[in-house]
Design brief:
The protein is an alpha+beta fold. It has three domains: 85 residues, Up-down Bundle (Transcription Elongation Factor S-II, Chain A), CATH 1.20.930; 91 residues, no CATH class; 53 residues, Single Sheet (N-terminal domain of TfIIb), CATH 2.20.25. The chain has 13 helices and six strands. A four-stranded antiparallel sheet has the order 3-4-5-6, with no helix packed on it. The longest helix has 39 residues. It is flat. 19% of the residues are buried. Its main location: nucleus.
């Protein structure tokens, strides 16, 4: 979650008085904000959230305390890790002063290129690939001309560039994944470079390039999401997790609000509100799933406004 998105949520928190909306917004912040000292200072999100600590609703105040505690722990861990890295760098620096100037230069160049180098009889292997250039097949020294068809080769190049965004995975591993995705897509359209093939490739590349969806690139690269499954996913399945959660929240809200003009709400004392423990609950039932499934019961506490549902 970037600075602009956090500031938008802060603005909504300051404007809304609805408890359910406040809880939803706090839940998004708790799940999506990666708390670093710099980020918290920049957005002032900690100050905004802490203002709700004294909220009259116990659910809100409790959630605020958990969020603040979690963020403090993350910042503390960040500082410890920083000190640890500094100490480690100091030890490495002390040991390398014994090397000749040529050996040190060679080691640094090898680290930048992500390759192995022998120094004083020892081998240093760097798993990550680090470069100052934008990662593309050409800049990474990778050839993608696997086929005579330029469209297929261009698709692999586009997939490679999208998968490599923000990644330190070795070029040879990325190109294997990119080629596999292109092959599966090609097979899905009867082994032809058709308009459907081109449109599908554009869609896959655009979703992989989405800056708000790094989880998708990571899952594809680490093998958690296999190419054969990835190429048949629809736009809803490819969407960022934050958008999926937002859509799910809106869907649930719409279910509660989707009461017809003649919808009758019965009041009963059979249900107990989980928030205020009162037995003044109105309810109605709707068929939200297939016809052979039981009705969904929607409940609203007449005392505090708390709402819930069950099947």
């Amino acid at each position: 979650m970037d600075v602009r998105e956090v500031k938008t949520i802060i603005t909504n928190l300051e404007k809304t008085k609805d408890t359910k909306t406040i809880v939803q917004l706090l839940g998004i912040l708790k799940e999506k904000v990666r708390a670093t000292e710099h980020f918290l200072r920049l957005t002032k999100v900690g100050v905004a959230v802490n203002k709700l600590r004294s909220n009259a609703d116990p659910e809100v105040s409790s959630l605020v305390k958990k969020i603040i505690k979690h963020w403090k722990e993350e910042v503390s861990k960040e500082k410890k890790d920083k000190h640890h890295k500094q100490d480690k760098a100091h030890v490495v620096h002390s040991s390398t002063t014994k090397q000749t100037e040529e050996e040190v230069k060679a080691a640094k160049e090898a680290e930048a290129d992500g390759i192995s180098v022998k120094t004083n009889g020892t081998t240093s292997q760097h798993a990550g690939f680090v470069t100052s250039k934008t990662r593309t097949p050409a800049n990474d020294g990778i050839k993608v001309n696997f086929y005579e068809n330029t469209t297929r080769n261009g698709s692999i190049s586009g997939l490679y560039t999208a998968l490599a965004i923000g990644s330190t995975v070795q070029p040879k591993d990325i190109v294997i994944v990119a080629k596999s995705i292109e092959e599966r897509t090609f097979d899905c359209y009867d082994g032809k470079v058709s308009d459907k093939y081109r449109n599908k490739m554009r869609s896959l590349i655009m979703n992989l390039r989405n800056k708000k969806n790094p989880e998708l690139r990571e899952k594809v690269l680490n093998g958690e999401l296999r190419p054969e499954k990835f190429v048949v996913m629809n736009s809803q399945e490819l969407a960022p997790e934050s958008l999926k959660k937002l859509v799910a929240d809106l869907h649930q809200k719409n279910l509660f609000d989707a009461q017809g003009a003649v919808q009758k709400r019965a009041v009963t004392d059979r249900f107990v509100c989980g928030r205020c423990k009162k037995r003044e609950v109105s309810y109605y039932q709707m068929q939200t799933r297939s016809a052979d499934e039981p009705l969904t019961t929607f409940c609203t506490c007449e005392n505090c406004g708390n709402r819930w549902k069950f099947c």
